[in-house]
Design goal:
Strand content: 25-35%
Number of helices: 13
Number of domains: 2
Distance between the termini: 53 Å
Radius of gyration: 21 Å
Helix content: 25-40%
CATH superfamily of the largest domain: Bira Bifunctional Protein, Domain 2
Strand order of the largest sheet: 7-8-9-10-6-2-1-11
Order of helices and strands: EHEEHHEEEHEEEEHHHHEHHEEEEHHEH
CATH topology of the largest domain: BirA Bifunctional Protein, domain 2
Structural class: alpha+beta
Length: 384
């Protein structure tokens, strides 16, 4: 006798909030507050919208001075912010709409960060198509129209909580973006572009006018609910979120020290009194760019004294990179590849396109070369 099917399972319920227009560092501090409160089961799964004044945001692992024209930004009142997610440097202003999702891994039981990125990006693209544009997901983390980026995305796991975010280019001041970011010619040449502005497209350009923000938010929520099988209801920002965000802003994320915490080390050009020498190399692949800075020491410069890894890659959790740098200290240069492989095999982090071999190759190349080629910088749309 056939069993009677049980009642259909109700879709996972998401709260929808909007933190509006806030300084960039305050918005990123709110990201961290949401993540930690979600991990503590103090807030529900959430869709959040946000906006920024003119700001450059660099990825969690990027070297500040390589990505940003710092002096120009300071002279022109442009905010400089370090995200808690990986990816490339981006320009953000009032002409863009940010969105983010924080939810439990069990809500979308997909096995990897890459597959979750695809599902979320395809849902966002479906939402944007409701506005009348032919938006589609492009691996690894972009949403494009006719090959031009309309939205960039990125995220990571923290325990059982997934944080994923993106942007929508509604309108953009391309000249200020180009003045604020260092976009290397090599990156543009790979796409046969003269400027970074050619790589991106806005809703205003596509539609002839910028849609109202409420219309864009409604379209995105519709895409997320239809494609991800969730429900979404307007909710309220909690005082615990605001209080914890203020704490993270004042103690870490809002400080100049955090923004400048990763930068290019100096290169003495010789061994110096300590017998150590700085070397660097860059590896660029489909998963992003990794620049390895190594300080080697010893009579034959055959031991790693310290390693700094920068770039626009995604690794979850972000502290994985710090742990890898620590694991490599004191490693004989001949054992770099084996040490990297052992580390990733034990740590089992979430990787979006990059592989352990990419890190191993960048470090090995740095050990064997004193050259320091320029790394790539992402153009707007990636809080990649």
């Amino acid at each position: 006798m056939a069993s009677t099917p049980g009642p259909a399972r109700a879709p996972h319920a998401f709260r929808v909030i909007d933190t509006g227009l806030r300084p960039g560092r305050a918005q990123i501090a709110f990201d961290q507050a949401m993540i930690d409160l979600h991990k503590a089961h103090a807030i529900a799964d959430t869709i959040r919208f946000l906006r920024f004044p003119p700001t450059v945001l660099i990825g969690r692992h990027q070297a500040l001075s390589r990505e940003v024209r710092v002096a120009w930004c300071r002279a022109n009142g442009i905010g400089i912010v370090r995200r808690i997610t990986g990816g490339g440097a981006i320009w953000f202003d009032e002409g863009q709409l940010g969105w983010s999702l924080v939810f439990d891994r069990a809500t979308l039981p997909l096995p990897s960060l890459a597959e979750l990125a695809r599902a979320i990006c395809e849902a966002a693209a479906a939402g944007l198509r409701r506005l009348g544009v032919d938006a589609h997901y492009r691996p690894r983390n972009d949403i494009e129209v006719d090959g031009r980026k309309l939205s960039g995305t990125g995220g990571f796991f923290d325990g059982d909580t997934l944080f994923y975010q993106g942007t929508v280019l509604v309108d953009m001041d391309a000249q200020r973006m180009l003045a604020a970011l260092n976009v290397p010619e090599a990156k543009l040449a790979r796409r046969n572009l003269d400027t970074a502005a050619q790589r991106v497209v806005t809703l205003k350009e596509l539609l002839g006018t910028a849609p109202p923000l409420d219309e864009i938010r409604t379209a995105l929520v519709a895409g997320f609910t239809a494609e991800l099988g969730i429900s979404a209801t307007p909710g309220a920002i909690t005082e615990r979120e605001e209080a914890l965000a203020r704490h993270y802003h004042d103690e870490e994320i809002g400080t100049d020290a955090f923004v400048a915490s990763i930068d290019e080390p100096g290169d003495s050009g010789d061994a110096g009194a300590t017998g150590a020498q700085v070397r660097s190399a860059t590896r660029t692949g489909p998963g992003g760019t990794i620049t390895a800075w190594v300080r080697v020491e010893g009579p034959r410069l055959a031991q790693l004294r310290e390693v700094l890894l920068t770039g626009d890659f995604f690794v979850a959790p972000p502290r994985t990179v710090l742990d890898l740098e620590a694991a490599l200290r004191g490693t004989p240069t001949a054992e770099v590849r084996a040490t990297v492989q052992r580390f990733f095999a034990a740590a089992k982090p979430g990787l979006l396109s990059v592989a352990p071999e990419d890190f191993a190759e960048a470090i090995a190349a740095a050990v064997g070369s004193a050259a320091a080629p320029a790394a790539a910088t992402a153009v707007p749309g990636t809080p990649s």
